[in-house]
Amino acid sequence: MTSIRKERGGSGIELSCALWRKSTYSGGNGSCVEIADLGAAAAIRDSKDPSGPKLIFATDEWRSFLDSIKAGNQSL
Fold it and tell me: For residues 61 and 57, what is the distance between their CA atoms, to the nearest angstrom?
């Protein structure tokens, strides 16, 4: 019998069908993060460890984080 491991994020969010992508600014050196747009949330993972832990952010939290980075906020 084959067992299928389902990835799960915070709050029971299903991640097995998530479409992960790297930034176009990624240098390809393996030190990247990947993001999956989940609609009401965003999932983040280390590209070197795709089966490892994931961080789940509500869409508004993720947008606020990105806006802070774009504004040059160094206090994050």
Answer: 6
